[in-house]
TrEMBL record:
It comes from Algoriphagus yeomjeoni. SUPFAM superfamilies: Thioesterase/thiol ester dehydrase-isomerase. CDD domains: 4HBT. This is Acyl-CoA thioester hydrolase. InterPro entries: HotDog_dom_sf. Signal peptide: none annotated.
Length: 169
């Protein structure tokens, strides 16, 4: 279970290096559009326990609540190709009392070219009723420690794509 330590620095971004697999690609050798979600979610699931010492299932069991995705906003910039090594990064860019927005992005292995950007919005809901509930206890501490909590109101994904492209140059 996550235990906040005020003297510890918590990274706000996860990173994985991943090989694009043949079985996940279309006949043009591009990563299938739907497979980006698998690559993003699997990368974050692998990295969160390593970086923060927490398994999401521990949160779910203890608080009897989980995050449910209700919106994806994805921008495909450059295709990921079969056999290519890529970098997948993720971070919580914003949260409030019951909602989080995760940003996932994929670059080439040298981190010079943006391939895809995904914003996923999730609501925290009770397991029993499926109704919104507030982040509490260790869940709230985890979000406070690891979230960028940027002001994203009015920012569109195309603006964020442009910013990331500039940062990668």
């Amino acid at each position: 279970m996550f235990e906040y330590n005020s003297e510890k620095h918590y990274p706000t971004e996860t990173e994985s290096r991943v090989l694009i697999r043949f079985q996940d690609c279309d006949p043009l050798r591009h990563l299938n559009n739907a497979k980006y979600f698998d690559y993003f979610f699997n990368a974050r699931e692998d990295q969160v326990p390593k970086l923060y010492g927490v398994e999401m299932m521990d949160f779910i069991k203890k608080y009897q609540a989980a995050w449910v995705i209700y919106n994806h906003n994805i921008s495909y910039v450059k295709p990921a190709m079969v056999g290519e090594w890529v970098r997948i990064k993720s971070r919580i860019i914003w949260h409030n009392n019951n909602t989080v927005v995760l940003e996932y992005y994929m670059t080439d292995d040298s981190e010079k070219q943006l391939k895809t950007l995904l914003w996923t919005t999730m609501r925290y809901v009770t397991l029993a009723e499926g109704k919104s509930t507030d982040h509490t206890g260790a869940v709230n501490e985890f979000l406070l420690a690891t979230s960028l909590n940027e002001d994203i109101a009015g920012i569109q994904i195309k603006d964020r794509v442009r910013t990331l492209i500039q940062e990668l140059k």
